[in-house]
Specification:
This protein is of the alpha/beta class. The protein has 22 helices and 15 strands. Helix 9 crosses helix 10, helix 15 packs across helix 16 and helix 16 runs antiparallel to helix 20. The radius of gyration is 27 Å and the shape is globular. Bound molecules: 4-O-methyl-alpha-D-glucopyranuronic acid.
Amino acid sequence: MPSPIPPMSVRPKNRPAPVAWLLAWALAAACLLITRSAGASSLPHGDEAAPAAEDGYRLWLRYVPVEEPWRSRYRASATGLIGAAAMEASPTLRAARAELVRGLSGLLGEAPRAADAVTRDGAILFGTPRSSAVVKSLSLDLGAVGAEGYLIRTTTIHGHRATVIAANTDIGVLYGAFRFLRLLQTREPIGHLDIAASPKIRRRVLDHWDNLNGTVERGYAGDSLWKWETLPEHLSQRYIDYARACASIGINGAVLNNVNATPFILTPLYLGKVAALAGVLRPYGIRVYLSVPFSAPVTLGKLKSADPLDPRVQAWWTAKAAEIYRDIPDFGGFLMKANSEGQPGPEDYHRTQAQGANLLAQALAPHHGIVMWRAFVYTTGSHSEDRAKQAYDTFKPLDGKFAGNVLVQVKNGPIDFQPREPFHPLFGAMPRTNLMLELQVTKEYLGQRTSIVYLGPLFAEGLRDDTWVKGAGSTVARVTDGSLYGERLTAIAGVANIGSDRNWCGSIFNQANWYAFGRLAWDPDLSARQIAGEWVRMTFTNDRRFVVPVVKMMMGSREAVVDYMTPLGLASQMAGTHFGPGPWMAPAKGIPADWTSTYYSRADAGGIGFDRTATGSNAVAQYAPHLATQYGNAATCPESLLLWFHHLSWDYRLRSGRTLWDSMVLHYDQGVASVRQARKTWSSLSPYVDRERYRLTADFLAIQEKDAEWWRNASIAYFQSISHRPLPAGAAPPPDTLAHYEAFCIPYVEGSPGTRPACPPADVAVPR
Ligand code: GCV
């Protein structure tokens, strides 16, 4: 049974004040009823139960009752709701109205009075100049907020104080409605508002790595959100609630299926299902996109080739695009993973990546569709070039060769979503190409479902990294938002962490990463700390005694993982499941070198780290000269990236004066200590959280502590067997032998492609 919504001013659970408790119960019940009916009104079938309380379903859109004195203040500014009441209002404006009714009812304990004119102080008025004569009459300066932005302003209408939420488009109004509700959710004053906001990046997309059989590659939150087998007939309430959550943070696109794509997605059977989903998401401003396999003309179209220069292949894609747009007029376009990890691509026909991308671009252009063409291209097997250099080597020479409706989608780092990487050298290196940033919201390499790792700092770090290509300030964010080179087609993608679990993301704190991605996609300059604060307030409580320690815990959580997994610029030390340590994993028959740990650590008796300076792979030369010099010199290279760029002696002295070996050990210890501290922090906060979410998080922190210790012990045991150095004073020796850690293996982790266990049963033991 789900637990009830606790009152916002929390007192220890066992001693509630009877009257306040009853009142809170009444309000909570009212809020639930209202949420239920508000939700039901926007249901295609009105068939499914509204979210139960405090199981995480409602994400950051909980709308629980506001405490005094805020409630009275807010009520005075919410005496009536004007806008989109007519049946002919667009679905988007109706969604805005439903959200305002839902939100205000829950927050203020009573539904806002529907009105059609401003007759008293405190009305909330929303709409566009087209949809609302009153908004039009206000002659607001909407020019600057563009197609998706909004204004929220306190104004006077017919002598009465009112709040107007206005935009040029209906979706702008919906975004404004969510922003207005966020003000109340985070206890901001709303009496004198003058807010203008618009997104800096045009396409803000979630990439779902969901397979048509219901599994999710690198998914740690259950099965796929999309129930293909019951589409198109059944349109689950979850689709709408997903869309609401996305719209609340400005996400405006969803790639529905895995980049390791199957041609089935392009069959009429599945396109019908895609069209149905597009219809549900459309009112919330979300376009759908599809991942497609390059070989589809062969596997689906029965052609002999998928050669991009073959006119029959071109005609096939043109016809397929036309077929899609017949049913989905606002279809976003295609995402393509080509010549990567076994996927087919243009190189199979001795064509370039640009020729491949332009094939699709040409087919989509008449419909205003776009291609997101991934730069995650590397050759496994015999190829001996540093993996970190390969995408740059492939794509940089193609700068200027991609069609105008192509975006080259580049992961934040040159390898693969590691706990820390330098930024990808393609950023800034292709001034005549639209580049988009790809982040991973799902925590493939960062502890997967259970670890608390707030990715805001990782995302923000990637966006703020300075490429120096046009001098200081040429940040990755400025490449992505188009301001560095003046591109108009701009985009950012996040690999989604959303699944069928009731709490959407597998854990409560994983929800923060979905939230942070959306907020940074809207405005890459936001601070990770501010975003964490907003999320904590909306997801849990505004009580500072909770907010302050939890934000602190979140802000330290990413560095903790870096410390206990891959400190000082190490990367890819995970086991084959990408969960748990595997620093001893070495190239073996059938396993490409760059899928192993020793390839990256290069640990030997002389030292550790990958020499990417001029004496090594010279990957530093792919960066602007300022950075090439800085990264290329161990004395000036940021210590957080030291072993990414340098192979150094175990006795190399860091700026602290400590040896590299001692420092590594201290980082592992620091990581474990941070997780222990997080556990302690959380255990002191139980009075502020409902039981269900408290328990889940506490249990997951206990798992994370074990995982951190496992990482620390296994890594130290392995590297010490190579460094032959004693542990620094005070560091405890690993409790087990290296052989013990090496033998231990988890056979199955969620989200791994395929169903084969990662090891034989004999290797399955209990780590200590
Ligand atoms: C979807 C990594 C992951 C793969 C993923 C790939 C990609 O290699 O482990 O599961 O495939 O990245 O981004 O295409």
